[in-house]
Amino acid sequence: MRRMRKIFIGILVISCLILIFVYPVERKFALRAYEAYRLSQGIEDTNIESKEIFKDYKNGGYKILVKYKDDRALTYRYSYYPWTHRRGENLRFNRIFLEISNSYEVLDPPYENKCKYPPLDEK
Question: DSSP assignment of 3-51, as one string?
Fold first, then answer.
């Protein structure tokens, strides 16, 4: 009985450590991927009007909602995933996707004259 209690406490401690360290680390990776993507788009840090980041529990990863000062009518939604495995693709790590929307619909390609910062082509 005493051995089972030690095993249970060990599992509990390991689970707590994972929860404490994994979420902040994944958030840091998401912010780092967003910054790299933003710089690739040519957007300055001073151009950010508002930025919200939150955990996406349904799909995994993080969502980053950004409004830019020079494109106020649109919301840029960056979705970060630590790994993805889509049909017909190999497992890929550290991916970020961009979806642009106005107040009532998501913009679809082609993006010419619809937004100032269109999504980058994925490699």
Answer: HHHHHHHHHHHHHHHHHHHHHHHHHHHHHHHHHHHHHHHT--GGGEEEE
User: What is the β-pairing status of strands 48-55 and 62-68?
Assistant: antiparallel
**Integer CA distances (angstroms), 36 to 15, 25, 93, in order:** 31, 17, 15
CB atoms within 10 A of CB 104: 5
Distance CA(4)–CA(63), nearest Å, equals 40
Q: What is the C-alpha to C-alpha distance for residues 56 and 68, in angstroms, rounded to an integer?
A: 22
Q: For residue 34, which of 92, 78, 94, 77 has the smallest C-alpha distance?
A: 78
Q: Tell me how far apart the 2 most distant CA atoms of the chain are, in Å.
A: 70
Q: What value does the CA radius of gyration of the chain take, rounded to a whole number of Å?
A: 19
pLDDT 10s digits, 96-113: 999 999 878 888 887 778
pLDDT digits (tens, 9 = 90+) for 9-42: 999 999 988 887 778 888 999 999 999 999 999 9
CA pair distance 28, 46, nearest whole angstrom: 20
